[in-house]
Every structure is written in C-alpha cells, then in structure tokens.
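Friendly challenge for the regulars: who can give me the structure tokens for this chain first? No prize, just bragging rights.
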Amino acid sequence: MTPSEAAGAAAPRSAIFAAPDLADFATRLLLLEGVPEPDAALLADSLVTAELWGHASHGMLRLPWYLTRLRSGAMQAVTAPEVARDSAAVVVLDGQHGIGQVITQRAVELGIERARTHGISGVAVRNSGHFGTAAYFTRQAAEAGCVALLVTNASPAMAPWGGTVKSIGTNPWSIAAPAGRHGVVVMDLANTAVARGKVYLAAERGEQIPDGWAAAADGTPTTDPAAAIAGLILPMAGPKGYVISFMMDVLAGVLTGSAFGDGVAGPYDPQRRSGAGHLLITIDVSAVSDPTEFAARIEALVDQTRGGALAAWADEILVPGELEDRNRRRLSADGIPLALTTTEALAALGREAHVVLPSPLSPVGPEVPA
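First reply, four minutes later:
Bragging rights claimed.
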C-alpha cells in the first residue's frame, strides 16, 4: 500500500455534528432561497429529526435536492395552502406546489382541530410535495391525544407485479397512537423492500445494497445502488407490497385530486412539480373511549408484547417507534454522524451561499449507522 493509499484508508468517511448546528445551517440556507423563517425551521427540523431517529436516508442528504427544486421553481419558496373544499369533518387542502413539510404540518393542525370537534377527521391534500418522514407528523397527532393514519404517494419506484415498467411509487404510510407511560407507538414504512432513500444513501456512501432490495432496469436482481436507482425497487412481501402501494395511491393520489402513478415527481427531480398527494385520517381518542382507559389498555398491549419469549437470535423485543426514540436520545447527546459525501455536499452548498458549515464535533471511522 502506498502512503497515499494508507492515508485514504485511514481517513474517516463520516463526521459527527451537533443536531442544533445542522438545523441552524439548513435553516440559514433555506432563508436565502426566500423561505419564510418558520417554514425554513420546520423543514430543517424534519431533516435533523430523521437523522436523530437513525433514518439518514431522509435526513441532511436531501437538503441539496430541496434547494435545487426551490431554485428551479419546481417547489414554491412561500407555501400558501388553500382550503379547496370544507365539509366540516372532511377538508381538502390544496398545497399550491409549496414545501411538502409545511403543507402537511397545516394538514395535521387541521386534522387535530376537526377531530376534536367531530371525533374523526379526514384531510385530503393535493398539489403537495415530498414531506420527509411520515412519522414526523403522525407523532404530533398522537402526542395531542389522537390516533392518526397518514398516507402519501411518491414518484415511480417499482413495477407492478409481473411487469418491468416503473410506474408504482413506494407510497409510504404511518400510523401513530398515544401509548400512556410508553409515550407514542408509531410505524412508518414504504411498501417496497426498502425505502428508496436508503438506496440513494448507499450510493452516496459507495456501498453495495443487500440482495432483495432492487432489480436493474431489465428486472434482474442487483446489489449495485446505481443500477437500482436506474432500475426498480422491489415491493415488500412480493405481490402484497405491490397491491398495498397501488391502493395507497388510490387514497393519496386519485381520491385527493392530486397526481398519481407516473405523474408524481420525486424530490430528486430538479425541474418537475411534484404533484404528490396525501391523506390524513385523525381520530380523537376521547371520542371513542375514556383516555385513561385507552392508555391503560395500550400500556398492557406494549407490556404484553415486550414480555414475550425471545427468539434465539434476539436480545429483546421492541415495539414500533421504540428504536427511533432510543436513537434520538443517544444521538442528541453524542451527535449525528454524516457520511463524508453528505458533509462535502453540504460544505459546497455553504461555500456557494457564504454560509459556513459548522465544525464537526469529531471525525469517526468508516462505519456509519444506516
């Protein structure tokens, strides 16, 4: 090994940053693009929160994509959602092609407000954009004493079962509920074998992806993330993942009056308006049962689930959302590791805008949590 190779092998592939520093950096860059301060802070917080949960695929690596879309006009810097239809318990919100996180935050606020009045509410969102992690929003409803289901559609990532043409989105969905002394239980998943962002993350890190995640454009399995991005992400559970994703597009795209199928553009598309749609259903727990009784029942479910016999390979049993809560506590204290490629991309953005990327707390080795 030459001295230069040895230096390259020893060089860290990631660095650790304080969460508030990253949020401030992202906010400042967004402000320069004309995003109002509260909206810039919300978008920045959604990215940093994803990092804190351990979902780097939906974290800071997406900031350059959002900035590019703001500069091209594909995404409006000033988000001004309008109520297109109001039927009391059901509201249709037109996002006017603004920032997906800001539009969805408004949907959550409306959903909670109307659920408290009517017991249950539905907010259909059209002409929105990518909103990051769905759990960012359903957790808020759960913390407000509601059970929430949020569905979104996404740009084509997989082929229909038996096909080779990419026309079905990952179409993620999240369900969250208050859980008494356990806080919140929440699931957030795409209907593919893996969230597409994890494939982009692997490409950014120069890593191969596992078998079963994706296929090349001709349908043959691949572990090359570049081939996967150009090809197909595979559905979870075979045809089951495909049909769930299809029906989520019915709810989020067709029903809401937004784009659907191959009409939706992703956040990595620099020019096209997204056209994404969402559907949020919010249920006020107090409209169904006494909140104290509900808390006791869900606590019993969590305790019963955690207390089951362990498989030979397992150290413990977790409930939905628990891993993210643990990650947040740990990374809030220790700092967020960013891949070297992400760090370099952010530093380049900062140089262009004369906004200095904060200094890392420390460099770390080549292993970076997924």
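The chain is about 40% helix and 20% strand. Residues 85 and 219 are 42 Å apart (CA to CA). Your move, everyone else.
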